[in-house]
Amino acid sequence: MSLHKKEKQHKLYNGEIVAGSLLVAESRGIAELLLKGADPEDWKDAVLKSNILQKRNPETARRQARLIKRRFLLMKPALWEMVVNAHAGLATQAVLAAAIKHSRLLGDFMNTVVREHWRTFQKSISISDWHYFMDVCAQVDPGVEKWSDSTRAKLKQVIFRILAEAGYVNNTRSLILQPVSIEPELKNYLRSNDEDYVINCISVTA
Questions:
Q1: pLDDT (tens digit per residue) in 190-201
Q2: Which of 68, 97, 116, 138 would be a feasible disulfide site paired with 30, CB 3.0-4.6 Å?
Q3: What is the pTM of this model?
């Protein structure tokens, strides 16, 4: 496993992804707000008063809305429209693409661990794979060493859940790898916007 050496000693990873996994249903609501050009007051009303994310805790709603919005602002409206209007499979992959763009941790795990397992015909991912990945990340970004065990465990939980939600593993227990075919519409969007890194990450089973 190797990550880009030129990025060594730079802050590359953050733990923002602990706020939630793919959150596809919630992402549809946030994408709609973005497409409507909602102002700050509209956002507050939708997330906290109307509770479009259907969360019991207002702080959870606020935190997840912020995570989803940050993901989508890295992409263009064409992707938001996929999330709102496309069938479940395409919407899920579009959200995954935005999540990868936002979280290098997620992207690198897919692009190194998952890809290597497919290349070497290993059937499943293990907990030891995660620990090894964390060690490699700490070499690239020393800030990772400061993450607590609980933070690392939560990150593992979220990333494994994302892999299951997107179909790359069968479930979060056995973590058996499964092939994933990328929807042509998403692939075209990513290619036309030069999202080569995201394409590499989502195409690890190809």
A1: 999 999 999 999
A2: 68
A3: 0.92
